[in-house]
Amino acid sequence: MHGKKDNAVEKKLGERVVKDFTENIKGKDHRIYFDNYFSSPDLLRDLKENKIRACGTVNPSRKSLPMMKSAKEMKRGDYDWATSNTGLSVMKWKDKRSVHLLSNFHDPIQTTGVTRKEKDGNEIKVSCPIGLSDYNGNMNYADKFDQLKGVYETDRKSRKWWHRIFWYFVDATVVNAFIIHKEMKLPKMTLKDFRREITRDLVAPALVASRGEKQSQSSHLQFNKKKPNVPKSVCLESSSHQPERSTRRRCAACSYKKQQIRTDWMCSVCKVPLCFRKRKIRFQDYHAS
Question: How far is residue 172's CA from residue 149's CA, in Å, rounded to a whole number?
Fold first, then answer.
């Protein structure tokens, strides 16, 4: 399933993957569902010959698909369909966007009703091909992990590429723990409540109790609103103050609201962002004053 066969790039990888997975269910009249990466008329025809019922979304640019009604001519709930002499049916349904479906066992004439929300918040019933409703109901199980992870995803923008990977693992760990919690038949809990319980357990009671209180006197750093204020004794008592790389923040010495000066440097002792500007070396000025 790696995309190469005999040291050559495989052109019909999606079809081959489906055929490999269905090798042991031929002639058993099973139903399978997949998305448009795998779906093609040739694949569904082959599966039908092996008595495997298959259904999936399909890219309208695939070969051998008929021309369907233009999306501009359709409104929400409208659909168009066509059948082949080999028992395949292709359906095009207009929701917010057009959806194309290919099936080797659904009757394209049969429809059902689905609920959709309008812009004003009102719910309306919209006609939908029964094949598409069946597809949506079954494909929901295939991406269950991604669905759970995406509900309360920890998404943080950053210039550091590894941050995205880190938060992905955090979310994946929470989802896996939630699944184990359900399998152990413990008291029922929603995913939101489960995440809240994890947060409560991870946050130290001492930090929660001290929220809003003043920092301890032993701390060198005391913050006044947004700008850090380091006592003079700390700035002058040590000679080990050295610049070191940090995240990009506002300079504590020369940045102000109307003109923000940002820097990648900070003091290794004071932990205060300080910039190196032409003619004015703020790092030295800050520790000399």
Answer: 7
**The two structure tokens encoding residue 246:** 């940090």
Grouping H, G, I as helix, E, B as strand and the rest as coil, residue 260 is coil
Q: Are 251 and 273 in contact (CB under 8 A)?
A: yes
Closest to 146 (Cα-Cα) out of 175, 180, 179, 188: 175
Q: Does residue 68 contact residue 82 with C-beta atoms inside 8 Å?
A: yes
Check residue 28 and report its DSSP letter: T
Q: Where exactly are the structural domains of the chain?
A: 4-139, 144-196, 227-288
Burial grade of 86 (CB within 10 A; 0-12, 13-18, 19 or more): exposed
Nearest C-alpha neighbor of 273 from the set 281, 264, 286: 264
pLDDT for the residue numbered 237: 57
- Which residue, chain included where needed, has tokens 């009703």? 113
**Cα dihedral 93→98→102→107 (10° resolution):** 0
| pLDDT tens, residue by residue, 163-217 | 888 998 999 999 999 989 988 878 888 999 999 888 888 776 656 555 555 444 4
CB 89 within 8 A of CB 81: yes
d(CA 88, CA 37) in angstroms, rounded, equals 18
